[in-house]
Amino acid sequence: FREHMAENLEFLAAALEGIDGIELVKPEGTYLPWLDCRKLTHNLGIEAGELDEFMVNEADLWLDDGAIFGKSGAGFQRINIACPQATLTKGLEALTCAFE
Q1: Contact between residue 56 and residue 44 where contact means Cβ atoms under 8 Å apart
Q2: 38, 48 Cβ separation under 8 angstroms
Q3: The pTM of the whole model exceeds 0.85
Q4: What pLDDT, on the 0 to 100 scale, is given for residue 29?
Q5: Which of 22, 53, 57, 94 is deepest in the core (most CB within 10 A)?
Q6: Which residues contact 58 (CB under 8 A, 6 or more apart)?
Q7: SS (H, E, C) 17-85
Q8: pLDDT by residue for the chain (100 residues), tens digit each?
Q9: Which residues pair with 64 in a beta bridge?
């Protein structure tokens, strides 16, 4: 399991390099890394409160909106990487397509 999570985290990090405005916050002992999307909201011209709507409606992804964890979570999304890499690939492709 740890090996699979390490591979998925590495895969996620590489995929995010191609998406301007999203930075990976590497997790410490969990399979739920944070995505810092504060630059993304600026690039898209949306407020942090609209980020979850963008993820659901434009990227067709249901991530955890950081704001549900408190005020300091605004502009962040949490993604679950405890899945087959094919599932992660599909989600990252959807995210990439949302910007095109």
Answers
A1: no
A2: yes
A3: yes
A4: 84
A5: 22
A6: 98
A7: CCCCCCEEECCCCCCCCEEECHHHHHHHCCCHHHHHHHHHHCCCCCCEEHHHHCHHHCCEEECCCCCCH
A8: 889 999 999 999 999 998 889 999 999 889 999 999 999 999 889 888 899 999 999 999 999 999 999 999 999 999 999 999 999 999 999 998 887 7
A9: 78
